C-alpha cells in the first residue's frame, strides 16, 4: 500500500509561531486561530502588544516564489492605484515572502525529503461579510472589479496559468490520470468534459485576457464601517477574461441574475470598457470552476482533515451526483 504524506501535516503550531517570530522580529502570544482555507493554511495570530495578524502558508508546489512575488507586486500596484487591498508586511529588508525549509521522512522512498513552505504575514483586517442589498451596493461591487482591472490591464504577463479551455483540459487530464473516476461513470465524464472544452474554446477565441483577481466573490470582501470595503485573497490571481471577476459576484445563474449583472456592469464601466461578447462565457466559467474544485479536492484528499469535511468524496454516489451536476451545467453552456 502506498502511503501519501500531505505537506501541511508537518506544519505544527510551534513551527508556525517560530517561523513568524524569526522572520519578522515580533513576539507572539501562544494562540493560533486556524481560518478556513481551501488550498493554503491561514492562521490568526496576536503579538504581545495585542496587535493582530494573519499568516498565510502557501501550499508547497502550487506556486513558485516568482509567482507568489507577482501576487505581492500586483497588490502593491493596486494599492498605489487606490484600490482597497491588504498589503503583506515586509521584513526588515523589505521582503514580503519568507521561506521555511523542513526535512521530512518519505516512507515511499525510505529517504529524507526537503519540504519548502513559502509564507507571508498580513495585518488583520477587521469587519464583516458584505451582502449587497441595494442597487448602489451592486454598482459598488462592479466599481471595485473595474478598479482591479485598471491595474490588471497594465500588469506585465504573468508566469501563472491563463484561465482558458486548455487549463480546463489540464484539470480534466489530471483527474483521469489519477484514476479516481469509477469505470461506470467514465464515459459520461469524458463526453461531458470534451463537449465543455470545445464550447469554452470556441467562446473564448477572440476574448482578450488581463491580470485578474481570479476568485472575486463576496466572501473575499470585508466591510468595515470606518474603512469601507477591502479586497482579500489574491491567491488565485491569473490571466483571463474580465468577466471572470464579475460572474462570481452574481447570486445565481446568468439567466436569473440579469438585473444584478446590469448594475455590476454600470459600476464596472465607470473605470473600464467591457466587451459584451464576454457574457457568453459566464456559464462556461462556472463549469471551469466546478472542474477546478474537483481537481483541488483530488490534490488535497491526503490531508489529515480532508475526509472530515468531505466524508463521501470519491465514492460511487459522489460521482453519480458529480456527473449529474456537470451535465446540468453543460446544458447551461448550451451543450
TrEMBL record:
Catalytic residues (UniProt): 215, 233
Site features described as ATP, chain residue numbers: 37
GO terms under cellular component: cytoplasm
Enzyme Commission number: 2.7.11.1
Domain Aminoglycoside phosphotransferase, residue spans: 38-274
Gene3D superfamilies, sorted: 1.20.1270.170, 3.30.200.70, Transferase(Phosphotransferase) domain 1
Pfam families: APH
The entry's keywords: ATP-binding, Cytoplasm, Kinase, Magnesium, Metal-binding, Nucleotide-binding, Phosphoprotein, Serine/threonine-protein kinase, Stress response, Transferase
Family designation: Belongs to the SrkA/RdoA protein kinase family.
Protein name: Stress response kinase A
